[in-house]
Amino acid sequence: MMKKLLLVLVIFLFGCSSSTYQTVDVDTVYKASLEDTSIIILDVRESDEYYQGHIKNAINIPVENIETIDLDKDKTIYVYCASGNRSKTATNKLIDMGYTNVYDMGGIDNYPYELEQ
Questions:
Q1: Rounded to whole angstroms, how far apart are CA atoms 32 and 63?
Q2: Nearest Cα to 107, choosing from 37, 47, 40, 54?
Q3: CATH number reported for the structural domain that contains residue 65 in this entry
Q4: What's the rounded Cα separation, in Å, for the pair 31 and 34?
Q5: Domain that holds residue 84
Q6: pLDDT of 18-62, one tens digit each?
Q7: Which residues are catalytic?
Q8: pTM to 2 decimals?
Q9: For residues 26 and 95, what is the distance between their CA atoms, to the nearest angstrom?
């Protein structure tokens, strides 16, 4: 009986491990956006900033509204803003909300590829 209880406890602890804050470089995001249409690119800037230029297929949810999203918690999500401050905040909030594959890309200022308007 004790062995079964210990086994259940070990499975629970390893099965419920939480995600941690991770960064990713812009080249990785760019390549992933070309190869994998299931990823989510999340722009956490204000809408006027988004419309001035954003990464192709990015979804705009300002950082102050991040708790309102309801996405697949296991999908890969790349988060960016203008300089990297808001993306870090949003990435940590998403991790706290249970999202497991969240990466902070930093600021769009470092994105050398073409933007959409």
A1: 23
A2: 54
A3: 3.40.250.10
A4: 5
A5: 21-110
A6: 579 999 999 999 999 999 989 999 999 999 999 999 999 999 999
A7: 81
A8: 0.83
A9: 20
